[in-house]
Amino acid sequence: MLNETCRFKLEPQAENLAILDELFKNYCKMVKECLKAMHLNITSRKRLHEAIYKELRTEYPDYPSHYVYTAITQALGIFKSYRRLSRNRKNNKPPSINGSITILLDDTHLFWFSWGNIKLATHKGHIIVPFKIHEHAKFYDWSVKGSRLVRSNDEYYLHVSFRKEIIEEEPLGLIGIDINEKSIDLAIVKPDKVRFIKVDISEVKYIRYRYYRKRKSIQAKTSGEKRKRLLSKYSGRERERVDAILHKASKVIAEIIEEEHVKPVMEKLKNIRDKIDYGRKMNRRLHAMPFRKIQSYISYKAMERGFNSEMVDAKNTSRRCPICGELNKPNGHVFKCRRCYFQADRHLVAAWNIAMKRSMWGALPLPPKALDEPLIIEVKGKGRDESL
Ligand SMILES: [Zn+2]
Fold first, then answer.
1. Angle at which helices 224-260 and 291-304 cross, to 10°
2. Hey, which end of the chain has fewer CB within 10 Å, N or C?
């Protein structure tokens, strides 16, 4: 199942603008009333409903009753995250909704989506609000699951959650995916062959380093508001650039998955720590790599193509010899087996071992030089940032 949210900018006519404005005001009031009731220790949906539903219905008789339902749902959500936060921090302020101006819409009673406009149930009957569609063609055959109306700087937006059922492909093999600081290493394992690919993402490291230095110099040369503003500007830019490369890399990998018709196998993240033990400095760098993000990009893009990822316990994936099974101590970039003297790139061995955790084929014929000469695909960003 694929889920994606898309944002559309609404373009209401003048008379509907006033209706939307009123709807937001009163909906906010409803949510606030719910939060007030919850402050008296009513925290279950059932009791909240019993305590407040009738009252709100009487107070807002012109509004479709489902707004009361979604206001209750929203208040419960706000309260839940408030409680989670106040457990972590002392002196949390009571929950408020001053910052968030959002209306949760029920997908069967409050709005009807079509490409180009929505029909919205309001206190003044149904209104139709148009919006522009740009590059949303991919969602045309998806189903609509819920939505939110959002007001931001006096503009109105519709956030729609789309859902699509995916038909799973029958894989012909596996692909072990090992994520590292400078590369994502792939081992394609099929009944009759093993193939290795290294996706070079070392540019991420380069970008990281440049921005790290930039941050240091900002910290040294500026202070106060200016420092804060510059730091947040550059960290936003860094994230964007790193993200662009990670998206490109995961697309490359998803295309390989589709072409080879293989099931992705990745490591469960809790094991990633014991992959490397090169001291503090190395570990800090490694942990800065957004593993979870890369994994989710890959698994999403693979799923779009009909291949569901599997997560395996990564214990010993960097230590076990894929040829003889001996457990070795990882040492440097080259994996060396002390028993059978097999040698190869450490990351490719790890990727191979990850795939083998799910393989039913046992030892495989290894083409000569398969590990010495893997296919290398370099993933680069859009060019250097001039300002750095
Ligand atoms: Zn060995």
1. 40
2. N
